[in-house]
Amino acid sequence: MVGPQRPQFVLFGSSIVQLSYANGGWGAILSDVYARKADIVLRGYYGWNSRRAVQVLHQVFPKDAATQPSLVIVYFGGNDSMGPHSSGLGPHVPLPEYIEHMRSIAVHLQSLSDTTRVIFLSCPPVNEAKVREGVSGIFSELVRTNELCRQYSEACIELCQEVGVKVVDLWTAFQKRDDWLTACFTDGVHLSAEGSEIVVEEILKVLKGAEWEPSLHWKSMLTEFGDDSPYDLVAFDGKTTLNPSDWTFHRAIQWD
C-alpha cells in the first residue's frame, strides 16, 4: 500500500470492465480524469455473469475491510442476457434470477459504509451482424440479440430505481449516435474508444448531478499535493511560477 490514501473507485464487472484499459477504454480515461484525485481499481472478469459475481461478492468487497471504496461502478448483464444453450452450459442467467443477483450486489455494496456510492451500468446494444461474423466456427449456439439486451437493460434500470442506486442507461446512450453500430464496438460487443467515451460521458453526468457529500465529481475533489511551489515552471514574467497540478490541455476531450 502506498500513500497518501486516496478515495478508491472500483470498477466491478465482466469483460466490459476487464477490457476497460484497452483500446482507449473508459477505465483508462477515468484514471486520467481522476489523476491525483482518486485511485481507479479494476475488478473485471471476462465472460462472467451475475451468478458468478454474487459467488465472490464478499471476497471482492469484504465488510470488514479497513477502508471501503468511495464509489463502485458495476456492470453485469451482457453475458446473462445471452440466449440459453441447449446443453445447459454457458453464461445465460434467466431474467428474474439476474434481477435478484443484481439486487444482492446493490444491497451488499450499499452496506459497506455510509459513504460508499454505487452506479450500475445497464446493457448496451450490440452489433448482431458483427457478432455472428466474428464467432462463426468458434462458439456453439451463441445467441446475442438486441431484444435480449433491451430486456436486461430495462430490468437493471427498474431495479436501480427501486433500490436507490444511480444507473447509466447505456442501451439508450449508445443509440443516440447515428453510427453506433459501426463506431462503438471492436467486435460487435466490446467497446471501441468511441464507445468508451460514451460510457465516461454518462458516468461523469451522474457524478456531477448526484447530491452526494462529499461530491465524487472530479472537479470537486482535491488534487493531491496541489499546493503552489517555487519549483514549478517559471511564468513569462520571470517572477512567479505556474502550478500545473490541474492542467488538462493534454486531453483530446475536455471532460465536464
From TrEMBL:
GO molecular function terms listed in the Swiss-Prot or TrEMBL record: hydrolase activity, acting on ester bonds
- Report which superkingdom the organism of origin falls in: Eukaryota
**SGNH hydrolase-type esterase domain boundaries:** 11-197
The protein here is known as SGNH hydrolase-type esterase domain-containing protein
Annotated family:
Belongs to the 'GDSL' lipolytic enzyme family.
Keywords assigned: Hydrolase, Lipid degradation, Lipid metabolism
Instruction: State the PANTHER family in the record.
Output: GDSL ESTERASE_LIPASE CPRD49, ISOAMYL ACETATE-HYDROLYZING ESTERASE 1
GO BP term, example: lipid catabolic process
Q: What residue intervals traverse the membrane? A: none
